[in-house]
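Sample entry (703 residues):
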Amino acid sequence: MGRVIMITPIHIPILTPTLILIPTPIPILTLIWSPTKNTTHIRTVRLIKRAAEVLGIAGLAKAWGDNITVVCASTALLLLEAIAPLVFPQAASYQNLLVYSAIPLIGVPALLDAIIDVAGGNVNIHVLIAFAALASVFMGNALEGGLLLAMFSLSHQAEHYFTEEAMGDVKTLKDRNPESALVLDEFDQSKPPPLSSVPSKEVAVKDVAVGSYVLVKAGEVVPVDGDVYDGKATVTVDHLTGEATPIEKQAGDFIPGGARNLDGIMIVKTTKVWSESTVARIMELTREVQSSRPKLERWLDEFTEVYSQLVVVMSVAVALLGPLLFKWPFMSSQGVRGSLYRALGLMVSASPCALAVAPLAYATVVSACANKGILLKGGEVFDALSACNTVAFDKTGTLTTGELRCKAIEPLHGHHLSSDTCCTPSCEGEALAIAAAMERGATHPIARAVVEHSQGKSLPGVEVDDFESIPGQGLAAVVSTEVGVKASQKARLGSVEYVASSQSSSWEAAKIREAAGNSVYSKELVQAALSVDRKAKSFVKWPMMYLVFVDCGGLVMVGDGINDDPALAAATVDIVLAKNASATAVQVADVLLLQHAIDGVPFVIAKAHQTTSLIKQSVALALLSIFLAGLPSVLGVLPLWLTVLLHEGGTLLVCANSVRALKNPSSSLNPWKPLKGLSSLTTYFKESKSSIPNIQSAGQIPT
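Predicted structure, serialized as tokens:
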């Protein structure tokens, strides 16, 4: 609660327990608020704000103050007052009329805001500016007071623009999502209606139930998540995942809400309500992160609250000590600016407006990441990522796709068929044709790889009869080739070691230290695919995690949540590839990559370092603007309106610097280059405990 202290020495309990002695016989009325707010204070503030809302004062102040037309009209009147006498000497008599017509337009909302803030015990930039403007008017400098309010209002309009620009991707995503959907009437599912004449009705997208059939035409946006029931179309999800390549969707394929149908027509069977769909989750998570406050932002909020009170105390000290120590007149006279005028300049220039907008870079980078299909669970993730210098990757499903790929065929007679060459009309081509024909009816993981390998090759036709899958042994069938030769052949799929296909986005020149491997063959293939040039012995998850923390400090863990939940939860920051992630992994993830590609890992780390750098630059710019405007103001060099111009210019410069986070780092084309600034980067592979020998008791991970 506020405490009124009427003493000659000013007691400042929020700053220091000592007394500051001011040698003046004039009693001073000082209003000080403690930053430690108790329950009674919080309730009082809420009551005052609620009363202001009920009475309409808060709404009036916001609507009036945010009206750009009113602000521009007031500014025009003030500029006309300054310019008119130079052009029309006879207009000098109307100067006061112009000024006092403009001041109420911008002064009333500023005064209402200040009253609400002061009543709630909050001394902020609005209070300081309103007080400085009011004091200027009473001192006879009405034009400067009006210009102060006008420039402050214009700068805040610009701040609103920069803030909307920073959060624009979420707004764009919301605008792109349809408000209604064409829901089909009931029909016989065994006989779907023709797509050209499907009876449907328009339903609000938030009222579409699970299991509904929705019609999506060319050029329209899929309203909610679902599966394609009928039809075929090419869709794009670039505004959801950042993947610009169009994707073909047909019956049975999953399609996320927010996907845009480029051509064709589809019937989509909804699997989720709108509030649980992909686009709604993206908007909700992004809004949560943008509204959450990282540690630095919380510290700046606490600092600016105390700092604002310190500015008031310093301004009072300048006004009172100036005449005593520097022989300044208290009021301006004979061309010499008085101590009160200088104090007002200090109050304006030293107000923490630029510091308050420095954390805008956080909201900006969240928007930039969302545009790339990267969702963050909180603002603290940026701070944590900046502190990490080690990245650990799960291998299966993260560095690899988990899918097999047939690279070559080795016939029994020893001839070799490379995957890069087309089959010739020989036994090799016939063997591949027979294998592919049989594998089309199999469910073994190898079957799909063989079938895909055969596609696009000129192979003889094969018919399969009496197909049989023998668990643990292989396939058996009677096959007929196109030349009419029949043969009975039993094909057996052995337990050959294999490694899943590596991500197509594997990184070049990455310095990798491996800490996994259930098979030497599998391990060597992964190392060759990812250019691993440093090796380590195998380690189980938990001891490896402990050693990484001891050896390297902060750890980023990248996985899909399949057998990785404890490791993800133990890491400093956990990044999850959301496409195949488990529900637990999505719940504990700090970062979700909607696009199933690990390119997002170096991107988000680079963004975290970029954000930290921008925040530091913004704070430095804010302090520099305070110094450059504050010192000349106290010395009486700058007029009040120019002080405001410098101060608000610094604020706008900080905003513009923060919006730079929308641009990607120039080196992000090569995923690893943004990480050059890290003191060290070590990448680990890991696999499940069942496939790894007992860990050694070493205190360091061998290299």
